[in-house]
Design a protein that fits this description.
This protein has about 375 residues and is of the alpha+beta class. The protein is about 30% helix and about 20% strand. The longest helix has 26 residues. Bound molecules: 2-oxoglutaric acid (AKG) and fe (ii) ion.
Amino acid sequence: MESPLTGSESRWLHVTKSPIPVRNVQDLVASSDELTAETMERYIRQDIDRDVVLAGHSAEIPVIDLAKLLNPDSVAAELAKLRFACEDWGFFQVINHGLPNEVIAAAKHDIEDFFRLPLDAKNDHAQRPGEIQGYGQAFVVSDDQKLDWADMLSLFSQPPQHRDMSYWPKQPHTFRNSIGEYSSELLKFSRYIETFIAKTLNVDYELMGGNCAVQTLRMTYYPPCMSMPNKVLGFSPHSDGSFITILLEVNSVQGLQIRKHDVWVPVKPHPEALLVNVGDLLEIMTNGKYKSVEHRVTINAHKERLSMSAFHLPKFEAIISPIPDIIEGKVLYKTVRVEEYAKLYLSNKLDGKKALDFAKISPT
Ligand SMILES: O=C(O)CCC(=O)C(=O)O
Ligand SMILES: [Fe+2]
């Protein structure tokens, strides 16, 4: 079947291809006799123990109530909370998000089912040769070539037009429907959140999220690591190259940590909430007022963690720059084309620097 993707969308798929061949972690864990010192070596990080982790702080991640934002009596106070969350945390939980429970339940169910499939069944999705790496350990390779202890499925999604994408996994057979529904509902939710974020800045929605046309979904499975859970990372420290990211913590197993004042703060999954974070492009547009905060995922000795991230981006042709009305003082970020930024972000050629650093205007 001919891919219905348009030019810029298929370019996105090209840039997400894995730069190095890597073994599928879930498969590796399943055949435990292969977990030798040699195979583990690529995952072990000697220095994670040195990082300070602040337990007991997770409850403080702001909780925003979408119902209160939609109520004229409570909107002002809730917007103040949202503004504080974006400035101070870069992360917030959203309750009363409006996604139907059954849509979330069906998506969670199918994500769990997908990762339970044997490897060749996961890979069984029609795709044009060489076009995308839909399933597998993708581009998450840190500079020292240490690998992340995770398996992932990345789907480019822009419902409802692209339900006919040729690379949906064939199993579970309800997957395309459940993930498609979730994706459509999430898009509606994101419009609200982007509108309210624009309101916290007193700018026009069209200037901000109004051009967020692209939603990419990434489902991640973090296998347990019995032998050395404190020596591997599920996801290396990074900030998201999106405008905003919306995370569904599929089975509510803890693992995500966010960096705040140079310590890692664990995020306690909130079963009723969606977790939203500020991405690099929103940081650029707000001239640094809203922070795209670094985060990572740790591994549990006994429990698997499953999550689904939805990255919201403006279309690839869009040009991003600090919005004049928001700038206080100096302009700190360059003007970037979304496509260029996405390529840089995914290129793994950053010499230890974050993509965001390249968008900063260096002080003269
Ligand atoms: O799995 C998670 O909790 C976070 C995943 C993440 O940070 C990402 O997909 O960018
Ligand atoms: Fe992330």
